[in-house]
Amino acid sequence: MKDMDSNPRYSHRPQSMNGYEEAVEFLPATDTKKVEKRDPRWKFVVIGVVIGAAVISLAVGLLVWHFAYRMARVPKVYTGSVRINNYVFVDAYENSSTPEFKQLANKVKDMLGELYRGQKDIGPHFTESYVTAFSEGSVIAYYLSEFSVPSYKAEVLDNAVLNLKIQSVNLRMRQILSVDSFEAYPLDANLARSFRNNSCSYFLHAKPGEVTKFSTPGFPNTPYPPNMRCQWTLRADAGHVIRLHFKTFKMDICKDLTGDYVKLYDSLSIAENRRMMTLCGSYPPSYNLTFFSSQNVMLVTLVTDSKGRQPGFMAQFRQIPQTTLCGGIIRNSEGVITSPFYPAHYQANRECIWDIQVPGDKYVKIRFNMFYLLETGASENSCTKDFVEINHQKYCGEKKPFVVSSNSNKMTVRFRSDQSVTDTGFTADYLSYDSQNPCPDKFTCKDRRCINMAQQCDGWNDCSDFSDELNCNCSASQFRCKNSQICKPKFFLCDGVDDCGDRSDEKDCGCPDNNFQCTNKKCIPEAQKCDKTDNCGDGSDEIGCPEVPPNTCTKFTYKCKNNQCITKTNPDCDGVQDCQDGSDEDTNMCNCGKRPYSRKTRIVGGVNADVGEFPWQVSLHARNDGHACGASLVSPTLLLSAAHCFQDLQGIRYSDPSLWTAYLGLHNQAQRTSQNVVQRSIKRIVAHKSFSDYTYDNDIAMLELSSPVTYTDFIQPICIPDSTRTFPVGKSLWVTGWGALIEGGTGASVLQKADIRIINYNECNQLLENQLTERMICAGFVSGGIDACQGDSGGPLSSLESNNKMYLAGVVSWGDGCARRNKPGIYTNVTAMRDWIKVNTGL
Ligand SMILES: *[C@@H]1O[C@H](CO)[C@@H](O)[C@H](O)[C@H]1NC(C)=O
Ligand SMILES: *[C@@H]1O[C@H](CO)[C@@H](O)[C@H](O)[C@H]1NC(C)=O
Ligand SMILES: *[C@@H]1O[C@H](CO)[C@@H](O)[C@H](O)[C@H]1NC(C)=O
Ligand SMILES: *[C@@H]1O[C@H](CO)[C@@H](O)[C@H](O)[C@H]1NC(C)=O
Ligand SMILES: *[C@@H]1O[C@H](CO)[C@@H](O)[C@H](O)[C@H]1NC(C)=O
């Protein structure tokens, strides 16, 4: 890189301005004196002058347009590589200061110059080329070429450069350099310029058998600097590939390449068509940030914007022997296949073929358990980038588990990745099955997937093609959709979600109390009527509203600390100050509901929560009982839980604080000594005085920890909703827990999560024979795939709100112990308990 620094070749001459200034000289200078003389011919003169002036102005206008806009020169930069066959790579080519590097670089520059000048659409605009690096193979040269082109010719230049085929050109230089492959890719001129500043460039070569580490400047003691451009050139010995792993990765969130980001290239040029991955934000620990190059080089670049506030990354790499081995001939009747290096990112430019064959009387099926072949912008239908192909059908993108079967004893699975953007790949198991009886003792779906008999006609689409839900007799707890005739659980009725696809489950629904029915039959909370927002979608909630003075106080308006009322719905912690005293954005109050990892966890269809996904989840252990109840952290010293956990029972004083131990930051019950976990004893338990152990009404309790906890990536408080915040029917929420032992089930080791949604109160109350009180929320599973006991008594019902924070919508209370697939669970309504919480916690 050094040789490029000596002359600042990227300063662009302001040619565009010259053109404009010349044109300005032509401006007509009308001779006013002549006009003043009342000569008889003055009329003709005036007309002549006017016409002349008009013609001149037009010409000038055209010239201005021509020079200022059409002729204005724009910088164009292309990057890419050329392969040189008649040179052998030597170590000196890794160092741009060596004579060997400079000598070969000059030859490549001459060759590129000759190549460009020979093309009529390219030559006139060519400015300069630079060689930035070499790598093995025989020798690959990475270059940047700079052009300055009138804007109207920019597109022509683009086409000409990108379609340039070196093989078809006759070059004098080719007698010196035997060049066969040539790649070019357009590059942002600013970006190219900033990467030429090598004040933050590192050149690293893997040492055999050793791990080489590198990190963002200042890591881990100070955040990375703002406005930074850094690059790390990683190399391995010939015949090896690079294995790069990010041990820590914490950066700002980026969006459309604003913010801070890291890019990885399977090349030494920053060409987008060789980009393996863009990384930014923070990844949950379950995301495997391991990458493999396809050759012996890799380039890592870092771009930061004006505000750098995060620690950055720590990475390490080593070399491993290059192997082209993947795929193979398979003759076992069952086994597992994965993309190369799964669960790390697969390499670019790979093809693997598995030829599976089982005994003659059997068929083959393959079940993909994880499938991530995602490339933004690639179509999922045509799968032109990375894909898996089976029986001439291509699969790509991000998929939930799926099954493919063949109608013979053979199956060919082909995996292919193109040269850009890689993902974590797939894992699949294949097995042979009896073509006569594909699912012994099980129900056979149309796609030959096997499901438990009990899952047939239960209202859930377990086969994924609905074949288990056709021609069913609906049970007492089910209703029948009109068009599809499919039976569905009754608790799907009237929740505002179109489960049938024809809205037949949303017809004839009166609205629950405190709700307003829109003209389109949607129900919205009364509070949203006349709030100047179209909550119905048809505007009917904003018709005929009395002209109330703004910010008058009602039951539904948010109240600031200074008693000012705000008409806007959910004004708290939305990033906009609505209260004059700023109390709606109070930093103490709003420091809650945050999840440390900005990236969503990707375990599609999984039930294990990710580490740090619900950092407010607390496990309460009762002496001699182990994990007995859940709770939610709401401040450094306070927890909310369910009152029924602390009722004395069978001679055990569960109401005694000294019986309990709280574990915070816990993920796996078997790893309570992990460094992320904090343990506290309980100082005080306050259960709601009106808790009824008969109806479970008012099932809420407050616990005080013996000493405050410090917030970390694994320990964070959840937000308590204001009494005006509403969680509408149909809203999807998370319930989490290890499975409460106190209810008699067996607990899970790893924290479980389930996506559930709020059920229509009246429908639920009917299903549960009028056992609900007004302080209860009813919620049930959104999709049928899971049938495990989820959630612990006292644990959180977490709701992601529009301000991207999680709010405590409910506390797990009762309902067959916990939420089940076909049984709703009952939760304490936290907004209904808001006053009690305020009195007892001060929050
Ligand atoms: C690169 O080469 C120059 C000149 O030969 C030498 O001074 C310098 O130490 C080399 N740099 C490295 C990192 O080897
Ligand atoms: C290169 O970047 C550094 C830090 O970003 C900056 O201080 C320096 O002025 C830059 N040098 C040039 C030649 O642009
Ligand atoms: C990531 O993938 C690599 C390569 O397959 C593997 O060795 C490593 O254990 C994985 N790391 C995690 C955290 O799963
Ligand atoms: C539905 O009920 C009818 C009559 O009771 C019975 O013949 C049929 O087998 C049932 N269908 C299923 C899928 O259970
Ligand atoms: C919870 O209680 C509040 C206040 O009584 C009520 O407005 C709200 O509708 C209830 N939430 C649910 C989901 O029933």
Automatic annotation (TrEMBL):
It is found in: Membrane. It comes from the Eukaryota. The active site is at H644 (charge relay system), D699 (charge relay system), S793 (charge relay system). Keywords: Disulfide bond, Hydrolase, Membrane, Protease, Serine protease, Signal-anchor, Transmembrane, Transmembrane helix. Residues 603-842 form the Peptidase S1 domain. This is Suppressor of tumorigenicity 14 protein homolog. The chain crosses the membrane at residues 44-68. It is a single-pass type II membrane protein. GO terms for molecular function: serine-type endopeptidase activity. Residues 200-320, 326-433 form the CUB domain. SMART domains: CUB, LDLa, Tryp_SPc. Mediates gamete interaction by affecting the vitelline coat. Exhibits trypsin-like activity as defined by cleavage of synthetic substrates with Arg or Lys as the P1 site. One of its GO terms (biological process) is proteolysis.
